[in-house]
Amino acid sequence: MDFKLTDIHREIIDLSRQFADKRIKPIIKDADRDATFDRSILDEMGEIGLLGLCFPERYGGGGLDYISLGLACEELEYADTSARVVLSVHIGLAALPIFTWGTKQQKELYLPLTTSGKMIGAFGLTEPNAGSDVVGMQATADEMPDGFILNGEKMWISLSDAADLFLIFAWTDREKKAKRDHSGITGFIVQRNFGGITTGDIKGKLGVRAGKTGFISLSDTMVPKENVLGQIGDGFKIAMFCLDQGRYTVAAGSTGLIRACHDACVEYANTRKTFQTPIGRHQLVKEMIARMYAGYEISRNLYLKAGWMKNNGIANSRATSLAKWISCEYAETAASDAVQVHGAYGFSDEYPVERYYRNAKGASIYEGTREIQKLIQADYSLGYRKDKKDRTELPTWPFDG
Ligand SMILES: Cc1cc2nc3c(=O)[nH]c(=O)nc-3n(C[C@H](O)[C@H](O)[C@H](O)COP(=O)(O)OP(=O)(O)OC[C@H]3O[C@@H](n4cnc5c(N)ncnc54)[C@H](O)[C@@H]3O)c2cc1C
Question: What are the residues whose beta carbons fall under 8 Å from the beta carbon of 74, sequence distance 6 or more?
């Protein structure tokens, strides 16, 4: 594994940082407080190539590697989690699955629209009564002569109100549903304009307040057969594949959040004085800052390793899950310590650290909770879980054409 970033990687860091400095940082305090979401940010991300950076040029993408995706996520979350969530969902959970599992026709139709940002993607797996327990889902897809009729409720869906395209997972086999056999679940590419779709926002969230999170209600939504993603019954496998990509982006983003905590604390600790000396001179404050730096380095190495494995087509579910778990743990600790370092000022929105604190909590819940990541790690160690041979990995990089 090569730890040296290329010139292109550095360009992506600069591009993402400049975008975040110009479009996210100036508005984020108000947008977070008022829980407002600016749709034009998505258009601008599309225009500068952020929404298509790791897709082949023939689909309108930038042809860059998966490490570039991670670096962009790190920079965006340095500014705010809601900006990074866009890449996690649109690229990690929607477009990369179509790129990997889609038919030629699906790729040719949808990828140019997603890489340009003309269509925004979302991922509908969770339901009001089924999150970690995926097979507890109730959504159904009944086969008709010319397609499938989907019914169900998806809950806690990022970008639900902004998206034009949804990956929806539903039971196509009711006998298997009764037996909780996940081979009865199928994934569908569903366009908002297929009809019978209502979306809405969840109010009063703890964090990611400048990002949309909501519900998708499907009522007799007719989906053509050509919009099945993969094969009938592949849905669970595809959903787990989606999470492998989403978790990678969350790990990279959380790494950016740790760095944001670190930098805010370094600046504050060098200026705030107690007992006639900058608080950075107190050993207990140093300890918190040292832990942030360690957390940043560890998390960055873990996500870059997972990105390198993705580039090379190496099975990376375990490495990605580990990167997600550890970076989220460190992000929660770093954000809590960052509030502590700022004292009472950290307890108000005069400084950004209280936002980091609220946002960090979410990442330990979505894309598989902290507990689920721990179970995955232990199950690999104990031999209860192995990389599946029939599991499709991401197309290796560089892409042809
Ligand atoms: C901001 C945000 C954005 C989200 N975006 C999306 C999205 O875009 N698409 C989508 O489909 N979903 C999304 N989600 C949903 C998210 O993936 C789920 O919340 C998550 O999978 C957990 O499910 P749950 O909330 O139902 O909790 P539950 O599964 O009910 O778990 C509750 C608690 O029990 C623990 N637990 C559950 N099972 C076990 C076990 N076997 N062993 C030990 N502990 C266990 C969990 O770790 C957790 O602490 C989002 C959630 C949030 C908060």
Answer: 252, 253, 255, 256, 259, 300, 303
